[in-house]
Structures are given as C-alpha cells and as structure tokens.
Amino acid sequence: MRGSLLMNRRGLQRFRQLAVTATGSAKIKILLFCCIAFTLLALPGWASKFMGWSNLSAPDDRLQAPGKGYAIVMNTWKRYDLLKQSIAHYASCSELDSIHIVWSEPDPPSESLVAHLNHILQSKSRGPRQVELKFDINKEDSLNNRFKEIKDLKTDAVFSIDDDVIFPCSSVEFAFHVWQSAPDNMVGFVPRAHWLEQSILKLCRSLIIMQHDNNKYYSYGGWWSVWWTGTYSMVLSKAAFFHKKYLRLYTNEMPASLKDYITKNRNCEDIAMSFLVANATDAPPVWVKGKIFEIGSTGISSLGGHKDRRSQCINRFVAEFGRMPLVSTTVKAVDSRSSWFW
C-alpha cells in the first residue's frame, strides 16, 4: 500500500513538473515571438536614423521639374454630388495644376455648381498656388468627348479620371512620377487584358463577322483574368496618366468610323485610347498599385454581355488598325516606401 501511495505521489509530482515546464515553455515562445515582432517593426526606423537615411529625399522628388504638374480631365454626367466629392478630394493633391471637367449635358453647368466648385478649390489652395478649374463644354453627348484636344493645357501630363473613383493623393502622385519615367506610355491603376481566342466557335464567328489579322479572334479579359494570370495589355482611362499629345491624336487621327461606333454603342472609348497609344509606341502600358474607392453606383461592367461587347470592340478596332497593337506585360509598379511585401 505504501509503495503504491509513494508511486502515486511521485507520479503527481512529475505531472506537475511537466505542466510547469510546458507552461513555461509556452510563455517563453510567446515572449520570443513578441520580441521578434517588435524588432522587425522597430528595426527599420532605428536603422534609418543610425545610417542617416531619414535625411535623404526620395529620388523622384529631386528629379521632378519645378512648376511641372499634371492636369486632371474628369468625365462626368449628371452626378453633381459625386463631382463635388471628387473635386474636393483631388484639389488637395500637391502636384495638381488644373482640373478640366468634360461636360456633355444638354444644359451648361449652373452658376451655383461652378461657384461651389471654385469655393472648394479656394479652400484647398496652398499659399499663392490655386488649382485652375475649367469646364470643357460639348454640344454632342459622346464618350469621345473625354479625349478631345484641350488647346490651353499647361502640363504635358494628363490624369484621366471618372467622377466616381477616388485614389489617395499619394497614389496619384506616385503614378505621376512613374509616368515621368515613361511619358510616352499609359500609366494607370485599372489593368485589363486581351486574349487570342482558341476555340473553334470563336474562330468560326470571326470568319463570318469579319476578315482580319489572319482571321484571329480576340477576347476581352476583365479584372479576374488579370488577377489569375498576372498579365495585362491595357490600363483603363477611368484612372490613367498619358501625354497630352494623345488627345490631339485621338481628335485628329482616330478613324471617324471608330468614333461613330463608340458614340453609337456608348462603350469602348477607353479601349480605343489604349489602341491609339500602343499603336504609336509598340510598348505596353504600366500598371501602378493603388487603393481604389468606388463612390458611385455599379457601372456598365456589371451588366450582362459586357465581356462580349468589349470583345467585339477589340476585334472591330483590330480590323480598322490592320493589326493588333496591344502589347502584353507582367510588370507592376509598386511604391516600395510604403510596402514591405511587393
């Protein structure tokens, strides 16, 4: 009996010892994890101060030409609350020079709207600099209006934007600096792709509808195609930088038949601009990482048949251009100052 009790006591003591050891080991692991996490978070700041990196300015800030900013060309249509919200946001971006609102409504902008927007710009102005506001009035309602030549643009850089999307100023100005390194290319936040269709059905369809480019048929690839493959060949003009010379080219050299097609179908002006730039450069666009905030209602991309209509546009444009000018790429520009994991 005594031997049995002694063995039980020894077993209980050993169990307690193991429990304490296990608990202590868990605590040590948690403490070690916290120390590692703290070191990873704090080390960059300490290293920057120790090495003197915190006193260095970013290269793109040093390279930027003084007085050279960008102009926003904003497309809008009877969404005055969204317009006010967008103007109020972008007016605070430090490198913005002017805002041109593409106005295609039958009635001109009201005096109260113009006064309200100018008041916003005055309240957001920094020192003597004030962003200039202009309405580009169009008699005809056409999606081509967003790419009409603007004679009095003071900047080479144009940031084409819809009134229902918001990007942080830091993202916009990073994209602007990327564009400065490749001013002939389109640089934007919303990538899309095109694919050579391999199915027999699509091939037969291309033979029936049109003869072009050795009877190849191309399909439009939306965001999920880009996400899945990491490949894109367009950046949409709903949020993209390009050189102002492309407004002149679009206005004067884009085939009238394509502009009529765009006006009639109320679609694909953004694809047409991508074709125009790619045809001039034989180079791909540049996709820039950025956080997008959609402040409007669901757009036409959510409607049924959207992909088919966009595919038809691509093939119509290929037939008109006589070739497929779009160039695919997998390159993505990321601001390394604000991202550890690229």
TrEMBL record:
Gene Ontology CC annotation, any one: endomembrane system
Membrane topology, from the record: Single-pass type II membrane protein
Domain (Glycosyl transferase): residue spans on this chain: 70-335
Top-rank lineage group of the source organism: Eukaryota
Keywords: Disulfide bond, Glycoprotein, Manganese, Membrane, Metal-binding, Signal-anchor, Transferase, Transmembrane, Transmembrane helix
UniProt key word Hydrolase: no
Name of the featured protein: Glycosyl transferase 64 domain-containing protein
